[in-house]
Amino acid sequence: MAWDLSVDLIQATVQLEQPLGDGSRTVGTGFLIENPTPDGRPRTILVTAAHVFDKMPSASAKIGYRIQSADGVWRYDPHTLKIRDGDHPLWVKHPTRDVAAIEVEAPPEFAKAAIPLAWLAQDDTFNKYSLGPGDEMMALGFPRGLSANPAGFPILRSGRVASYPLAPASVFPTFLMDFSVFPGNSGGPVFMAQGARRRPGSTESQEVQFVAGMLTQQVELSGERLEIGIVTHAKYIRETVAMLDKLAGPPLIQASPAKPVVPSTQAATQAAAAVSVTAIAVSR
């Protein structure tokens, strides 16, 4: 049976939310990565866009786990996730990109759904598969806090790569994707899952499945949404996760102060998908 990255990422993707005092809530998306500590201790890491946490003023948020019963029925089972100790953030933030990571204690059955860090794209992945403008990628998220069903699974959408060149990530840290971005999408994984793509320079086909990056922003011009998403390369997710290994003492310490992020691909942008949205009747 062929490996299906889409299903694995759906299982690893969660909704993040925090109610606000005015009846609205802040909503974002995150996904779980399996990455043992340097000494081999099992560890589950939640990654999301840094502005998702920045826009949550309270000390705790809700992380939308899902539990499957013995009869196979899924149910939504959100847990409390502590993200601050007073004014002290418990996540790490990439120094230059809109990416955050925090170690979490996921339920055992959900920890198994975390994807290996190795599934994230490397610096040479785009060139290896000769990827470029027009290639289709998929994205998972919770647009305006909506889920695919009462069990709280994310909504899968697709779009095409809309910018060139894509690499190296150190020069082009973000790329554009042609699809609509809504509040709640930020922090969701963007990935490629093709079972049969022609191998460069050959008539043979190859399986292409990897996480390309994370949706972090939308493009706006003069207040108009252009239905273009900005994706931060997986390289910066890897670097943010690595920051957890460099911490001394407790695994979660204060991150550096958040700074505005202006993607090199488009100056006229607005941090999009973790904003305060009016309360929505989301089927649960």
Key traits:
284 residues, mainly beta, nine-stranded mixed β-sheet, 38% strand, globular, disordered C terminus, Peptidase_S1_PA, Trypsin-like peptidase
Walk me through the structure.
It holds the Pfam family Trypsin_2. This is Trypsin-like peptidase. The protein has one domain (5-277): Thrombin, subunit H (Beta Barrel), CATH 2.40.10.120. The chain has five helices and 20 strands. 12% of the residues lie in helices and 38% in strands. Strands 1, 2, 3, 4, 7, 10, 11, 12 and 20 form a nine-stranded mixed β-sheet that branches. It has a six-stranded antiparallel barrel with strand order 13-14-15-18-17-16. It is mainly beta.
How are the secondary structure elements laid out?
Blueprint: H1 5-12, E1 13-19, E2 25-34, E3 44-48, H2 50-54, E4 60-63, E5 66-68, E6 74-76, E7 79-82, E8 84-85, E9 88-89, E10 92-93, E11 100-104, H3 108-111, E12 115-116, H4 125-128, E13 136-141, E14 155-161, E15 174-178, E16 189-198, E17 205-221, E18 224-233, H5 234-245, E19 269-271, E20 276-277
Parallel strand pairs: 2-12
Antiparallel strand pairs: 1-2, 1-4, 2-3, 2-20, 3-11, 4-7, 5-6, 8-9, 10-11, 13-14, 13-16, 14-15, 15-18, 16-17, 17-18, 17-19
Protein name: Trypsin-like peptidase
InterPro entries: Peptidase_S1_PA
